[in-house]
Design a protein that fits this description.
The complex is a heterodimer.
Chain A lengths: L7 H4 L17 H5 L17 H11 L4 H19 L2 E4 L3 H13 L11 E5 L26 H8 L3 E6 L33 H8 L5 E6 L5 H7 L2 E4 L19 E6 L2 H11 L36 E5 L9 H16 L3 E5 L7 H16 L17 H12 L2 H14 L5 H24 L2 E5 L15 H6 L5 H6 L3 E9 L6 E8 L5 H14 L8 H5 L1
Parallel strand pairs in A: 2-3, 2-4, 7-8, 7-9
Antiparallel strand pairs in A: 1-3, 4-6, 5-6, 5-10, 9-11, 10-11
Helix pairs in contact in A: 4-5, 7-8, 9-17, 11-13, 11-14
Chain B lengths: L1 H15 L4 H21 L5 H19 L2 E12 L38 H13 L3 E2 L2 E2 L2 E4 L9 E4 L6 E9 L8 E13 L3 E4 L6 E4 L6 E7 L6 H18 L11 E11 L9 E4 L4 H20 L9 E6 L4 E7 L9 E2 L6 E2 L2 H10 L4 H10 L4 H8 L2 H12 L4 H19 L10 H12 L5 H14 L3 H8 L7 H14 L1 H8 L6 H11 L6 H14 L2
Parallel strand pairs in B: 12-13
Antiparallel strand pairs in B: 1-10, 1-11, 2-6, 3-16, 4-5, 4-15, 6-7, 7-10, 8-9, 11-12, 13-14
The chains are: A alpha/beta, B alpha+beta.
EC number (chain B): 6.3.5.-
Catalytic activity (chain B): L-glutamyl-tRNA(Gln) + L-glutamine + ATP + H2O = L-glutaminyl-tRNA(Gln) + L-glutamate + ADP + phosphate + H(+); L-aspartyl-tRNA(Asn) + L-glutamine + ATP + H2O = L-asparaginyl-tRNA(Asn) + L-glutamate + ADP + phosphate + 2 H(+)
GO molecular function, one term (chain B): glutaminyl-tRNA synthase (glutamine-hydrolyzing) activity
Chain lengths: 542, 548
Amino acid sequence: MPSPIQNPRLLLTSTRIPLYLSSKTPCTHRCFASLPSLSPQTLAPQSTTSSIPSIRESLLSGRKKAVEIAAEYLDRIRLTEPQLKSFIHLSDSVLKDALELDRKVENGEDVGPLAGVLVGVKDNLCTVDMPSTGGSRILDGYRPAFDATAVRKLREAGAIIAGKTNMDEFGMGSTTEGSGFHVTKNPWDTSRVPGGSSGGSAAAVSARQCVASLGSDTGGSVRQPASFCGVVGLKPTYGRVSRFGLMAYASSLDVVGVFGSSVIDTAIVLSAIAGHDRLDATSSSHEVPDYSSEMIALDQLNSKPLKGLKIGVIKETLGDGIEAGVVSSIKAASSHLEQLGSIVGEVSLSSFDLGLPAYYILASSEASSNLARYDSVRYGQQADADDLSLLYGDSRAKGLGHEVKMRILMGTYALSAGYYDAYYKRAQQVRTLVQKSFKDALDQYDILISPAAPSAAYKIGEKTNDPLAMYAGDIMTVNVNLAGLPSLVVPCGFVEGGASGLPVGLQMISSSFSEGKLLRVGHIFEQSLQGYNFVPPVLSEN
Amino acid sequence: MALFIFRGFCANAIILIPKNGAFLHKIRPKRSQFEVQARRSGSTEARPAQKSSQMATRERQQQQLQGFEAIIGIETHVQLQTSTKAFCRCPYSYGSDPNTTICPVCMGLPGTLPVLNSRVVEFAVKLGLALNCEISMKSKFDRKQYFYPDLPKGYQISQFDIPIAKGGFLDVDLPVEFGGGHKKFGITRVHMEEDAGKLVHSDTGSFSQVDLNRAGVPLLEIVSEPDMRNGIEAAEYASELQRVVRYVGVSNGNMQEGSLRCDVNVSVRPGGQQEFGTKVEIKNMNSFSAMNKAIDYEINRQILLHKQGQANQIVQETRLWDDATQKTFTMRKKEGLADYRYFPEPDLPEVVLTDEYVDQIRKSLPELPEAKRRRYENMGLTMQDVLFLANDDDVCDYFDSCIQNGAEAKLAANWIMGDIAAYLKNEKVSIKEIKLTPKELAELISSIKNGTISGKIGKEILNELICKGGTVQGLILEKDLVQIVDPAAIEALVDGVIAENPKQLEQYRSGRTKLQGFFAGQVMKKSKGKANPVLLTKILQEKLNAGN
């Protein structure tokens, strides 16, 4: 019997990732390697070193034990966590896991590519050995019966889960101020937000409380905090990483993303967690390459490693309402990319401004449905009540936060009979337009760039009473989710603020399943960026 | 014969008091019992009485409706007998201990996602084709949202605007005793969805418990056009649907276990009115006869309200059928239209079918009940026989196999509908379980027809064949059952009996001719039942009358 089910959503984008940087001017990395000359001016080595390969090297060479490495990170957590509050729950089995790993190394057993790597996991990803709340009081104390697929794969690759990171409740927010538990502080300036909703994951990597972390990105929840905290953040293609075990916010937009302090680390983690999962019908069976193996070390590259790569700066992202410092950072980054050999042009996405309202309608609509299961009947915090509707009403009134309730109401409204066509259906039409305008732009350019957020990290409390201003902050990122495309944020500069400036991230967008291309370009960009050190002051203070 | 007289009487009784709906319902169960018996006996004698019954039923309906027309539409939920649930890998079996066939997915735990069981699509296409529907080559799932403790996700995964199949019909042959006739009822749509769990209420009513075993079990919802006009038509539609789901093997169609559940919408309008009256939904009917009764009760209730000028008291509501009181009562009134806020299920890809896939399923479909009935009708069987045989595909297979082994259709039908059906009913077994093979039944029939054994002997050995098996030839030899057809041998037996009973002979010859039966019985006894009855009668008469 032939399989009745095809997946047109995934078929659309099932082209193989090309091995060359530019689809317009094919050139494999071998041709870079064959060119000997290096320009010390543009390609001076950077302080950003990749941690995962060095941890692996230390472990396998016997220079360091996993327990020692873990202890280093635990010490740092002990010092910084009271200030930052990146985590909702810290694992109590880190040292035990590390000991077990050391035993394996001693016995010469195979250890995975993430052996000894401490990874923070956003609290909306289910973990079997730790509570998972999604940042919500309604799930306070909830312990899942299973690991999310991404978490399971991390463990299988040898990673040690450091703990569950703080987040805006169910991913709804841009600051972690919406967490049901506490606010996370930005390691660059503890009076500022780390961004959100994956603010805990970003802050934890920024403060080197863990090597890498998992987040989730529905409308920018990985990329904006990466930008605010000065770390690398990757939002993979929709369907690249299984969503099984990710507490759904907006199912058609949600993706599991990765934070790392370097592009290589990010690439290694992505290789570990990506791939088809039989528990997620929307996960893609598109081949998963070893993303990090295709990266080339700086000293192997010529002076124009991005020669021929066509880069389009999204015009609409550098206009009104964008902080001047952010605009100049992005402009500097684009000239840097040009110096590396790429051809930089300007591209207009006609439907860009429509994306934000469409996103909020679609995300809220799906959220109103996805969050219906938090009814306190089977799990979670239950209110005392005499009848059924009171049981539902009181449990949800007490358990869910303000922002979540607002979005549930908006979504319920948008899906109601008589409004569906005007809101949900129209928003889906906008989504199609957004997809088309990205496709047109990506037919012309290999990579599109923009800021990851209109500003650097702002003060805690600054926007809590102005939800529309907060929503507007997502303008840079939501379109990418509507189109389902992969996007990488790499720190590219600083603006004034805090004790030592505030980091700004460069967002790079490419066509579906071309994470490899983004990571290679990001890696070159990161290594060749001079004069910046993206290690936050909180570390030197302690 | 008394049986058939009563049938006629019963129908007449209904005509006498056509307005008394309650009485009508009370006596109907008796009628249906007789119908079963009549069908079972398979006797052709039933037919003369049918005519009057048929007319009576029609007249009754006319009078009952009193110028009103009832409009009935049915939504049927059929539980699919897939080995696992619709969106997870849990098995399901009716009657398991509460919450023993559940997993994080069907419990709706945070982070879980549905993955479609491809058998559900296969079964949906199968049933869609069997119901003559147009199959949607591209369909999708939607979420139907409402809060209830038996619905773990807060929404049911269903299909809203693009059902997997639509625009079909179902052919139904109405039972002869209800007027007979062939009807075509439209099928609006067939769509896939998941079942909810069950609430178990405590005896005190102070708390309820949730059993999620059934949550996520695949269902097909079949929505009919509002083509039915009375309880019988509705019940026959449902029972034909049950036959079809059983024939194609998508469900066991068991109403008691809830594998086939019918929700009926009933409205009534004055004759000639174009727009429909307010419809009332009836649930909780767990047999076809309950459906029939509930609908007729509801039609009467609504007509009565119309006639009393209280039509405005017919409100959109859900009523439950109560078998004990034989009435419907209000379960909940619908305040406005429920808004389920349907939207496309983002966790499941679209369902895209290929022509090849659909064709393969079409080819795999068995002969459907309607085709079987037409084929049996062409064999010359009466509609009563046809309906009995085509009711169950195992019986059909048995019957067809008898025919293939050379049995005459009418004779085979009579045996199956008579003695065999009686045995099945008494022993509560299926025709597949009996030891009598269709081949041996065909052999039995031909042995009787060609005179090897008498019909009486045939009936006698049938039971042994059913219980123990063996061959007809073997039994005939073993028990020395070959019919005595030699006139001389019969004459000798007759002579012997006459000689032994001089008194009775005298009485006979003095006019008590009824004693012929006595002599015949004695001769038959002596022959151990083997004497050919025709020859016996002929020779006996000659001998008895010879003295005159």
